[in-house]
Amino acid sequence: MFIFLLINLFCIINVSGQLCSADYRMNLTGLDVFSDGSIIKNGIRFPPNEIFSLNVSGDFETFGCPCELRNCFRKCCPLGQVMVNRSCVEMYDVLQKELRLHYYDNHIASVDLKNSDQFAVLTGVPCDWDVYKEDDGPWYVQLVSH
Fold this sequence. Notes:
Elements: H1 2-16, E1 26-27, E2 39-41, E3 44-46, E4 51-56, E5 59-64, E6 71-74, E7 81-84, E8 87-90, H2 92-96, E9 99-103, E10 108-111, E11 119-122, E12 139-141
Parallel strand pairs: 6-11, 9-12
Antiparallel strand pairs: 1-5, 2-3, 4-5, 7-8, 9-10
Organism: Pieris macdunnoughi
Domain Methuselah N-terminal: 63-134
Membrane topology: Multi-pass membrane protein
């Protein structure tokens, strides 16, 4: 009985705890849970150990930590939109031409943000600092390990 209680307590603590901060989580609420406990969103398979639930305004919502599984790419506006005068506007070219990323080691790559298995794209998250891109120059990416 004691072992069962201990296991049950551990599961509740693990599920209720935050595995990543609000800036680095993806909402998985309402998605299908597979028999192994995983959930798939935007081509990313979240194993059970990267899924947690939180009480948000009285409702339990399910979240995953994509940055634990892939390199994260933060984009203030949703895919297909760009920031213009502090608001998101549709930009067809962003999805059609892919995003050309220039790495600091002079490597250049085009990334299909909708189907990337290299990056987890966090979208729709408002940037809470003044970030902007001057002119239409290249986008640089620096991979940082954590």
